[in-house]
Specification:
alpha/beta; EC 3.1.3.-; Rossmann fold; 9 helices; six-stranded parallel beta sheet
């Protein structure tokens, strides 16, 4: 039986642990645009950049390694995660493909970001992985994932505020604005009572 306040925390990587705006300069460079992060009103950047899904998939295939290597840390994510490591179980569940494991691990090492599990599932559908790891809580930036996980697993989701995830949120999904705020909420577990 796990200690009273130990949580299994599911954590997305891109846009959650990494700075959500980090993809924009690389996309601008590749597609000759001058968009700002604030212009990214949709998670699907093919829509934002007015390119085909195939063109975006091809771009990500060619530039994913650079993107994952160069992305800065989102706020104080590294410090918060280091503080959590000895108390909670940190399970990163990412849509990154398994072939990006080395660049991901090198990035984690560079920023001294600890982990217990790293599950690169190659898909935005994180439900099966979240079930497999039996997460108590999930940190995410993609609205569709937040809605699916909260509804199907009936767990709290902390959704990092971005231009592309605006909208009305159900009871178990809580919009957060910083890693400091996330840290405060986790320390105040159970979060369900805070979200009401």
């Amino acid at each position: 039986m796990k200690p009273e306040r130990t949580l299994i925390i599911g954590i997305d990587i891109d846009g959650t642990v990494t700075e959500p705006s980090s993809i924009v300069p690389l996309m601008n460079e590749s597609f000759g645009k001058h968009l700002r992060y604030e212009d990214c009103f949709a998670y699907n950047l093919a829509t934002v950049y007015n390119i085909t899904e195939e063109a975006f998939a091809d771009w990500l295939d060619k530039n994913g390694e650079r993107l994952y290597d160069e992305a800065p840390v989102h706020g104080t994510a590294d410090a918060v995660l280091r503080n959590w490591y000895h108390q909670h179980r940190l399970v990163y569940i990412s849509a990154r493909e398994a072939r990006h494991r080395d660049v991901t691990l090198n990035w984690f090492s560079r920023y001294q970001i600890p982990y217990h599990e790293l599950d690169l599932i190659g898909s935005h559908d994180k439900l099966a992985a979240a079930r497999k790891w039996r997460v108590d809580l999930f940190l995410e930036d993609r609205l569709e994932n937040a809605l699916q996980l909260s509804e199907d697993l009936e767990i709290p989701i902390l959704l990092f505020d971005t231009p592309y995830n605006q909208g009305t949120l159900p009871e178990l999904v809580h919009r957060v604005y910083s890693w400091e705020q996330v840290d405060t909420l986790v320390k105040s577990w159970p979060i369900k009572h805070i979200l009401r």
